[in-house]
Amino acid sequence: MKRIVLLFAILLLGITASKAQDVAIKTNILYDATATANLGVEIGLAKKWTLDLSGNFNAWSRDEGVKWKHWLAQPEARYWFCDRFAGHFVGVHLLVGAFNFGNLNNNISFLGSDIYNLSDYRYQGYGYGAGVCYGYSFLLGKHWNLELEVGVGYIYADYEKFACDECGRHIGAGTHNYFGPTKAAVNFVYLF
Fold it and tell me: Tens of pLDDT along 114-151?
């Protein structure tokens, strides 16, 4: 929690030190669709460079004991091919987060991750990673953009495994290495 507070303090200092046209706030509607609260702030650093600081938080348990609790912070440095906040960009991002997932009935296996195990077990732990991304920002008006972005990379997860979604028997611990998509965004952006 102290790290999150420190991240937002640094973010606020960066906003107050920036000119108005150098700052954007955004929300990812893909996260919104899963009831995950999210906010991003992007700050202009140079003519073609920006720093995007995004985070999300989901503390809700769904009906029937389904858990999809998590938080994620994802800072990203972006290079814009034309003007910043418009057109094509590439970037590199880091990510850090915590998760508590379980009781999700499915039969999905994706890029070496057996997501179907979430049907019978609860996993709780931390993840760290990095990746690269590509995106495009469409100008909708003087202050509004629509931004599309995809990213791929690596995530290392360290977790505890439990037999059920609440107060379950501890089964063990483990780690998981994941290579694949690390970011997907459809952002509504407001430019100051």
Answer: 665 667 788 899 999 999 999 999 999 999 999 999 99
pTM for this model (two decimals): 0.80
Q: Containing H/E element for 12?
A: helix 2-17
Residues 2-29, mean pLDDT to the nearest whole number: 66
What span, in angstroms and rounded, lies between the C-alpha atoms of 164 and 149?
35
Given a cut of 50, whether residue 6 has pLDDT beyond it is: yes
Euclidean distance between the first and final Cα of the chain, in Å?
A: 29
- How far does Cα 89 stand from its chain's mean position? 18
Rounded-to-integer distance, Cα 40 and Cα 56, Å:
9
The residues, ordered by sequence, that sit 6+ positions from 60 with a Cβ below 8 Å of its Cβ are 35, 68, 69
Torsion of CA 119, 124, 128, 129, to 10 degrees: 0
* DSSP class of 18: S
Q: Which residues pair with 93 in a beta bridge?
A: 76, 131
Beta strands in the chain (DSSP E): 23-28, 37-46, 49-58, 67-80, 87-102, 109-110, 113-114, 122-139, 144-162, 170-191
Spatial separation of the C-alpha atoms in residues 144 and 174, rounded to whole Å: 44
Own/partner pairs, 167-172, CB within 8 angstroms, 24+ separation: 168/122, 171/121
Residue of 73, 125, 65, 72 lying closest to 99 (CA atoms)? 125
